[in-house]
């Protein structure tokens, strides 16, 4: 298997996710100690999808993250650049309009979506700022962005324990439950290298988003960032 490096060559990252697609949702549940379910509920609340609204769910993988939006009556487009992930998702929920796409060059027209969201995928994009600009481009004026991403715990003692878990405990657990444990070593390294909460907020503003704010989940292990496209 190809293990992606932190310079995030798109073909390497896509190949890595292709390799873990079959057991991706199960592995995430185990590695997060079940917290990923709570985090996704918080994402759904923040997106606040409504009937007939159009929602773009980027880095949707198998589409698990898209289902809560669909249940509200919104039209949700799960988009991912891993063909393996999309194939697994299509088998489970063939009715969803799975779309292959690169977050830095989205295959959609300007001003299409009421909301754009990405969960645990932005740090795997080769050019974060280009992706944030693309999300802004495809969002209609007045629309919103919600980003759920691993971040930096705010309490120093907990941050130390968390970092130890990422680099020491996560790889052996991944070996036990994942079809491709090297992918999770990369993921742990990418989490450590990711900007903290204020730094990501500044990048959102730099891409054109306004009223940017964030809140921490699980003590800052995960952060929800939200912004709006001015009307």
Automatic annotation (TrEMBL):
<comment type="function">
    <text>Methyltransferase required for the conversion of demethylmenaquinol (DMKH2) to menaquinol (MKH2).</text>
</comment>
<protein>
    <recommendedName>
        <fullName>Demethylmenaquinone methyltransferase</fullName>
        <ecNumber>2.1.1.163</ecNumber>
    </recommendedName>
</protein>
<dbReference type="GO" id="GO:0008168">
    <property type="term" value="F:methyltransferase activity"/>
</dbReference>
<keyword id="KW-0474">Menaquinone biosynthesis</keyword>
<dbReference type="GO" id="GO:0032259">
    <property type="term" value="P:methylation"/>
</dbReference>
<dbReference type="InterPro" id="IPR004033">
    <property type="entry name" value="UbiE/COQ5_MeTrFase"/>
</dbReference>
<comment type="similarity">
    <text>Belongs to the class I-like SAM-binding methyltransferase superfamily. MenG/UbiE family.</text>
</comment>
<dbReference type="Pfam" id="PF01209">
    <property type="entry name" value="Ubie_methyltran"/>
</dbReference>
<keyword id="KW-0949">S-adenosyl-L-methionine</keyword>
<dbReference type="InterPro" id="IPR023576">
    <property type="entry name" value="UbiE/COQ5_MeTrFase_CS"/>
</dbReference>
<keyword id="KW-0808">Transferase</keyword>
<feature type="binding site">
    <location>
        <begin position="102"/>
        <end position="103"/>
    </location>
    <ligand>
        <name>S-adenosyl-L-methionine</name>
    </ligand>
</feature>
<feature type="binding site">
    <location>
        <position position="62"/>
    </location>
    <ligand>
        <name>S-adenosyl-L-methionine</name>
    </ligand>
</feature>
<feature type="binding site">
    <location>
        <position position="119"/>
    </location>
    <ligand>
        <name>S-adenosyl-L-methionine</name>
    </ligand>
</feature>
<keyword id="KW-0489">Methyltransferase</keyword>
<comment type="pathway">
    <text>Quinol/quinone metabolism; menaquinone biosynthesis; menaquinol from 1,4-dihydroxy-2-naphthoate: step 2/2.</text>
</comment>
<dbReference type="InterPro" id="IPR029063">
    <property type="entry name" value="SAM-dependent_MTases_sf"/>
</dbReference>
<feature type="binding site">
    <location>
        <position position="80"/>
    </location>
    <ligand>
        <name>S-adenosyl-L-methionine</name>
    </ligand>
</feature>
């Amino acid at each position: 298997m190809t293990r992606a490096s932190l310079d995030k060559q798109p073909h390497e990252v896509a190949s890595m996710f292709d390799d873990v697609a079959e057991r991706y949702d199960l592995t995430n549940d185990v590695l997060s100690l079940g917290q990923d379910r709570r985090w996704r509920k918080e994402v759904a609340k923040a997106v606040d999808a409504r009937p007939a609204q159009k929602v773009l769910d980027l880095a949707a993988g198998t589409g698990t993250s898209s289902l809560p939006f669909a249940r509200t009556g919104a039209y949700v487009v799960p988009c991912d650049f891993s063909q393996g992930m999309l194939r697994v998702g299509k088998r489970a929920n063939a009715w969803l309009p799975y779309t292959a796409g690169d977050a830095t060059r989205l295959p959609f027209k300007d001003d299409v979506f009421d909301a754009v969201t990405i969960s645990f995928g932005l740090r795997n994009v080769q050019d974060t700022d280009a992706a944030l600009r693309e999300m802004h481009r495809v969002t209609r004026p007045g629309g919103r962005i919600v980003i759920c991403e691993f971040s930096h715990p705010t309490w120093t003692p907990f941050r130390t324990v968390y970092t130890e878990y990422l680099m020491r405990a996560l790889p052996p657990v991944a070996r036990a439950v994942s079809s491709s444990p090297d992918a999770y070593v990369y993921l742990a390294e990418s989490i450590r290298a990711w900007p903290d909460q204020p730094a990501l907020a500044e990048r959102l503003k730099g891409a054109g988003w306004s009223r940017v704010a964030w809140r921490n989940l699980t003590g800052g292990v995960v952060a929800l960032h939200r912004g709006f496209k001015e009307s």
